[in-house]
Amino acid sequence: MLLRNSLLLIPAAALTACGGSQPPPQHGPAEVGMVTLRAEPVTMTTELTGRTAATALSEVRPQVNGIIKQRLFEEGSIVRAGQPLYQIDARLYAATRNQAAAQLASARAALVTAQAKLTRYRQLGDADAVSKQDIDDATAAVRQGQASVNQNAATLRIADVNLGFTRVYAPISGRIGRSTYTQGALVNASQATALATIQRLDPIYVDIQQSSADLLKLREQMLSGQVASNGSAPVRLQLESGSAYPEVGTLSFADVTVDQATGSQAIRAVFPNPQHILLPGMFVRGQLSQGIQTRGILVPQRAVSRDERGRPTVIVVGKSNMAELRVIQADRTVATSWLVTGGLKPGDKVIVDAGPLLRPGVPVKPQLSRGG
Description:
Blueprint: H1 2-19, E1 30-36, E2 40-60, E3 66-71, E4 78-79, E5 84-88, H2 91-126, H3 132-165, E6 167-169, E7 174-176, E8 186-187, E9 196-211, H4 212-224, E10 227-228, E11 234-238, E12 249-254, E13 264-271, E14 283-300, E15 305-306, E16 312-317, E17 323-327, E18 329-334, E19 337-342, E20 349-353, E21 364-368
Parallel strand pairs: 1-21
Antiparallel strand pairs: 1-20, 2-9, 2-14, 3-5, 3-8, 4-7, 5-6, 7-9, 9-13, 10-14, 11-12, 11-14, 12-13, 14-19, 15-16, 16-17, 18-19
């Protein structure tokens, strides 16, 4: 009976050995793609919003009273400094000018008479034919006549200036907007509304606001030698349409005061604008080159993740090719990489390509990543 039971168990054991589940095969280290970090000069940039502004703006206003007889420009066109824009009725000012010229001629004639009289009196005075008082009176008359000539000459110059003001000229070169007054409108020298506005668009300003805290941090890095100045500080623009502006601008100045309400500092850049693509008041995004990190370390963005506390982390190839978690400091991006300021050093091997099951503490087989 015992032999029979043993024989019955043999097929079952054989079946278990042949058809039962096998233990899972042992796999080798996971293959991962990695990059070897190195220190290199990194140009630090920041992207900020801004508005365009004309480099020169002139509100054209009349300097005499009168009726506009003619508009001499095309609205929206480019005008040159000194180009006539309006003609104001000049008849009254021409008459005033002629009157002043006639008064000056009369004063000059009177002066000639007074000078001739003084000459005769002096000759007669030598012969004691006239009194000294008569000579003094003649001398005073000459001086009074000269003063009258000077006064009327000044009046004539004022009349000439007012007559010239009846033609209104462009004070600067630029693009002129619409005319707020038409032919036949009455204008005066003290009016609040400008006849038209001229704006110089080439070059053009871009006014940008940047946090004073960021600027202070950048200055501290420059003083400590971590960041070097890049000299000309080029600036690039992205338009409202999303396209890049083809011209490169330069940083003009940074304001010396900080806005107490916003905590920001005004920065002005100058851009060539030969095609007048940029118009005053446009919203743009400016990319400013702030300096050069002389020994910067860049890590591809796809290699960086966040832990439960929100800190940036990477996985590096540690000793014996074991995956090792590192907490790093990285507060800005440069193109498709993070600029690391702590937690990593040149020569570290950061894993950038790995499977979803990769965990710290497991062995890995590192290979050079094709994506870099």
